[in-house]
Amino acid sequence: MALEYALMSAYEIAVIGGDGIGPDVIAEAIKVVRAAGVEIATTDFDLGGARYLRDGEILSDRTLDELRRFDAILLGAVGTPEVPPGVIERGLLLKMRFELDLYVNQRPFVQAATTDSPGHEFIVIRENTEGPYVGEGGVLRRGTPHEVATQGSVNTRMGVERCVRYAFELAASRPRKHLTMVHKTNVLTFAGDLWQRVTDEVATEFPDVSVAYNHVDAACIYFVQDPSRYDVVVTDNLFGDILTDLGGAVSGGIGLASSANLNPARTGPSMFEPVHGSAPDIAGTNTANPIAAILSAALMLDFLGEDSAAERIRSACAQPSQGSTTDIGDLIASRLAG
Ligand code: IPM
Ligand code: MN
């Protein structure tokens, strides 16, 4: 029946398995999404370091345009040791973040309850299209004693404001309604001042949300010693990069850390990827933990409006799982069956 088919049509998902452990963990994520009863039609894109070494393609404008028609992009990990640093990162990952306007990088952290703490969840909202990542700067007289290198941080009012507003909206939707802006306003006085003023201004629209500010160095201490002070953290691109590795390290390890690169305006697909890299040293050994990829797929389902499937996947991931990459995927999938 045509109508029924239209109502039940599958989500179109572009899959970039990438390099190293990327394809293995993504295969488990897809398995789990299907086990949760969400219909997806996947299209594989062969991109990453291996593809680049083969024929030089990183991410052509044509491929980028093909990606635009999908409901979402699921990415494993990209990068191989044979390719110099920056080539794949800038040419593929950052190109997608910038060109698809994925201006929010949302990274949730869940700390399991222990005998002396009740367990805690907090979310970092990392600005994802500006800051030192834009590639502003240059080099002069490279390789000479007089060489000069500059690398600026670009912060626009529009870019900071849309990210900060997203973080406030998220905080307002959560029981604790607390937001912490993290920066280095005592040293980065130009960018920090813009971030502080924007935060103060947007705060007036959210009177229910309590607001705090931490310098990024102090935030590193609190992430380790007292993360329960955080609910929603909002910060710039580079601070967010560093803080979210730390967040992963203090929340069960980077093997559990998931992320959503969001275009909240929905002018194109959003992209979902584990925080971890391609781990070439363990590629093909079936030992990588697929949970970060599975939880990233759950974030994708949240964004597609499949909240209950996403929640069921998170509960299935919260139970202890052991074994190989495929064992863990099978186990989590089996918890969702029926
Ligand atoms: C991340 C990664 C990337 C980043 C790299 C691979 C470019 O570390 O997603 O956190 O710095 O954003
Ligand atoms: Mn990172």
Any overview of this molecule?
The structure is a single chain. Helices cover 41% and strands 20% of the residues. The chain contains twelve helices and twelve strands. It has helices spanning 2-7, 22-35, 49-55, 61-67, 87-99, 157-172, 189-203, 216-225, 237-249, 291-304, 307-318, 325-336; strands spanning 11-18, 40-44, 72-77, 104-111, 120-127, 137-140, 148-151, 178-183, 210-215, 232-235, 258-262, 270-274. A ten-stranded mixed sheet has the order 2-1-3-12-11-4-5-10-8-9, with helices on both faces. Strand 8, helix 7 and strand 9 form a beta-alpha-beta unit. The longest helix is centred in the middle third of the chain and has 16 residues, at 157-172. Bound molecules: 3-isopropylmalic acid and manganese (II) ion. 3-isopropylmalic acid binds at residues 89, 93, 241, 275.
Largest sheet, in brief, is: 10 strands, mixed
Runs in which pLDDT lies below 50 for 5 or more consecutive residues are: none
How large is the radius of gyration? 20 Å
As an assembly, this protein is single chain
Helix-and-strand structural type: alpha/beta
Give the helix level as a range of percent. Answer: 40-55%
Q: What does the overall shape look like?
A: globular
- Mean pLDDT, to the nearest integer, reads 96
Strand content is 15-25%
Summed up, the helix count is: 12
What order do the SSEs take from the amino end to the carboxyl end, as H and E? HEHEHHEHEEEEHEHEHEHEEHHH
Strand line-up across the major sheet = 2-1-3-12-11-4-5-10-8-9
Distance between the termini: 25 Å
Ions and ligands = 3-isopropylmalic acid, manganese (II) ion
- The number of strands is 12
